[in-house]
Design a protein that fits this description.
The complex is a heterodimer of chains A (130) and B (181).
Chain A: H1 7-17, H2 29-35, H3 39-55, H4 65-73, E1 94-95, E2 105-106
Antiparallel strand pairs in A: 1-2
Chain B: H1 8-15, H2 19-41, H3 44-62, H4 72-95, H5 115-127, H6 131-142, H7 147-154, H8 158-179
Helix pairs in contact in B: 1-2, 1-3, 2-3, 2-4, 2-6, 3-4, 4-7, 6-7, 6-8, 7-8
Classes of the chains: A mainly alpha (130), B mainly alpha (181).
């Protein structure tokens, strides 16, 4: 049974989750939006929002392309029609002979090694490299 | 409780070795994971290590990931959080009593905080919170995880999460009120 959202619970939720109802538990959001039109409860939200805005001042620099590229390069990917899986950073051998999915073995490759052979083009996964 | 996972199709493609899906997943998740690790650890280099390790585990997991009760994003956050906790624990063990460097949120001469100083002041205030309150606030306020997901990541109940959030936010309100900023 879903209990109606009381003003007390409304205040408790604002205390915990802040002034943005979108961060509140999903099951109460619709009711909370409706209640938020009441002046007292709107004031509670505004007060909670003051702290939210203060917290929002803490910014973090986004990742650089180099980190992105490093992570992407270490992912196992399918190359060409013949399934080749290689974990560049983990030293696991990757080789696959024959068509079809199924058995494959891993071969050790240096981390900068670009596999290109037998007409199978390898496109770099990294950003800005083409 | 079964919830549709918005990442399910993408993870399936990653598991099949789809290069485009790999790029897409990293572009989608890296900024958020790095932000969490940076805020938890206070060290960019360590945070990048955590982000890399999280994705390394994601690559292993993708091939066998089966949509179910847990969302992949929740799983990623759980991995990142646990990696951060491990690093913080090792730091504490190595520090053994020495007080870690604290960010100095002193205002500029004219008494006004510029953006960077305000950012550092918030970072310092949150760093001073008890660990679980800090984690709860980072996951809900900064990572925008819903209450269920955040509680799952922290392996606590939603009620416990709410209690941590409320206490943490109360401490922060009091802290900023004391500072008069």
């Amino acid at each position: 049974m879903i209990r109606p959202l009381t003003p007390e619970r409304f205040a408790t939720l604002a205390d915990a989750y802040g002034g943005s109802i979108d961060r509140w538990p999903a099951e109460v959001q619709a009711e909370a939006h409706a209640l938020a039109t009441e002046p007292k409860l709107a004031a509670i939200l505004r007060a909670a929002m003051l702290l939210d805005e203060r917290l929002d001042a803490w910014e973090v620099t986004p990742p650089e392309a180099a980190l992105y590229n490093q992570i992407v390069r270490r992912a196992p990917v399918r190359i060409g029609r013949r399934l080749r899986l290689w974990w560049a950073g983990l030293g696991i051998a990757a080789a696959l002979a024959g068509a079809g999915a199924g058995s494959f073995a891993a071969a050790a490759l240096p981390s900068d090694h670009v596999m290109g052979d037998e007409g199978t083009a390898f496109g770099s996964l990294a950003m800005g490299e083409r | 409780m079964s919830r549709p996972d918005p990442d399910a199709a993408l993870i399936a493609r990653v598991g099949e070795g789809d290069a485009g899906a790999v790029r897409q997943l990293v572009a989608l998740k890296l900024p958020r994971l790095l932000a969490l690790a940076t805020r938890l650890l206070g060290d960019r280099v360590e945070a990048e290590d955590v982000a890399q390790e999280t994705f390394t585990r994601a690559w292993r997991q993708a091939a066998q990931w089966r949509p179910g009760a847990a969302l992949f994003d929740t799983w990623l956050h759980t991995v990142a959080l646990n990696l951060c906790r491990d690093r913080l624990r090792h730091k504490r063990e190595r520090a053994s009593g020495t007080v870690p460097d604290q960010v100095d949120p002193s205002p500029t001469a004219d008494g006004l905080l510029d953006e960077e100083e305000r950012s550092r002041a918030v970072a310092a205030a949150i760093a001073a919170l008890p660990e679980r309150q800090r984690e709860a606030i980072l996951l809900v306020h900064y990572q925008d995880l819903g209450n269920v997901a955040a509680a799952e990541v922290m392996e606590i109940s939603v009620e416990a999460l709410e209690s941590l959030l409320a206490r943490g936010r109360r401490t922060l309100r009091h802290h900023f009120a004391q500072e008069g900023r």
